[in-house]
Amino acid sequence: MKIRIKSVNKILLLLFILFGVVSIASVVGAANISILNGIKIIASQIPIIDGLIDLSGIPDSHIFIILNIRLPRIILALLVGYGLSIVGVSFQGLLKNPMADPYVIGTSSGAALGAAIAILLKLNKTILGVGAVSIFAFIGALLATFIVYQLARVKSKVPVTTLLLAGIATGQFYTAIMSFIMVISSKDVTSIVFWTLGSFSSRGWNHVQIAILPIIIASIIIYIFSKDLNVLLLGEATAQNTGVNVEWVKRIILVTSAFITAFAVSVSGIIGFVGLIIPHIMRMLVGPDHRVLIPASGLMGGIFLIAADTLARTIIAPTEVPVGIITALSGGPFFIYLLRRTKKVI
């Protein structure tokens, strides 16, 4: 009972931090908007309390900036950080590999190749307000994951080692093709590189609408299997003996994780290290129980990516730094720490 109360308190603390980060991110920028006004503007969109909020005295330009430029960007960063962190948790638990992240099975390389093809073909059409580059990235991510899964299958099973090797091999193959595209189309190199570094620039409510339901629904499905992930930490044989259908759990986790990653990549580009560092940090803070670790990592991932995106758009304003650079600068040293720690264990 005490453990549950502590877990709930930690989740509530993360929600409080999230509220603070969203409030600050909504007012940081060129326009001089106070935090109080920012909170009022955001609260005016909440159905239950919208009638209690008085926006008189707040310039229309400030309302427009927050509701149409900053808020959709903040929510999208929250969704992507939330999704990638949950996928990172599930992969690290499923593969029993502390280095695993959402891109370990070649999803990012497939997405990058899809985006590069769209840029090369100069596709400018949109579907439901989403550009061709994002759509091709989504298709590339799902196809890459499907190919890796088929390559990794041994009869009716998917061994972890085979899955990792297939992911690395196909990822390198896709990267080579993308590099070839960049060589033959030097004019598009900047666009391709900028996309692969990840960014929330020029993102709006249409991107939020595309990503929100798939990411939330898929993350709920992963959470349903949190107990199974706990048992899998003891080994596949032990899990099988306790009644867990290991291969079925693997398939569900892989498919839903690939689904989340594909949607995240399609709206933000490739943002590395979020799914690697956040699960480790939260595992140290809340423990290894996936029933707590999954939601805690999701919230912390959202907080981290909102903060990173706010820094990316303000650090050398008016020029915007791709958010993937900020996450890589944060995640790179942490990844080196994990490598050193793993070497000591070996």
TrEMBL record:
<feature type="transmembrane region" description="Helical">
    <location>
        <begin position="103"/>
        <end position="121"/>
    </location>
</feature>
<dbReference type="GO" id="GO:0033214">
    <property type="term" value="P:siderophore-iron import into cell"/>
</dbReference>
<comment type="similarity">
    <text>Belongs to the binding-protein-dependent transport system permease family. FecCD subfamily.</text>
</comment>
<keyword id="KW-1003">Cell membrane</keyword>
<dbReference type="Pfam" id="PF01032">
    <property type="entry name" value="FecCD"/>
</dbReference>
<feature type="transmembrane region" description="Helical">
    <location>
        <begin position="128"/>
        <end position="151"/>
    </location>
</feature>
<feature type="transmembrane region" description="Helical">
    <location>
        <begin position="321"/>
        <end position="339"/>
    </location>
</feature>
<feature type="transmembrane region" description="Helical">
    <location>
        <begin position="205"/>
        <end position="225"/>
    </location>
</feature>
<keyword id="KW-0812">Transmembrane</keyword>
<feature type="transmembrane region" description="Helical">
    <location>
        <begin position="252"/>
        <end position="280"/>
    </location>
</feature>
<dbReference type="GO" id="GO:0005886">
    <property type="term" value="C:plasma membrane"/>
</dbReference>
<dbReference type="InterPro" id="IPR000522">
    <property type="entry name" value="ABC_transptr_permease_BtuC"/>
</dbReference>
<keyword id="KW-1133">Transmembrane helix</keyword>
<feature type="transmembrane region" description="Helical">
    <location>
        <begin position="163"/>
        <end position="184"/>
    </location>
</feature>
<protein>
    <submittedName>
        <fullName>Iron chelate uptake ABC transporter family permease subunit</fullName>
    </submittedName>
</protein>
<dbReference type="GO" id="GO:0022857">
    <property type="term" value="F:transmembrane transporter activity"/>
</dbReference>
<dbReference type="InterPro" id="IPR037294">
    <property type="entry name" value="ABC_BtuC-like"/>
</dbReference>
<feature type="transmembrane region" description="Helical">
    <location>
        <begin position="74"/>
        <end position="91"/>
    </location>
</feature>
<keyword id="KW-0813">Transport</keyword>
<keyword id="KW-0472">Membrane</keyword>
<feature type="transmembrane region" description="Helical">
    <location>
        <begin position="292"/>
        <end position="315"/>
    </location>
</feature>
<feature type="transmembrane region" description="Helical">
    <location>
        <begin position="46"/>
        <end position="67"/>
    </location>
</feature>
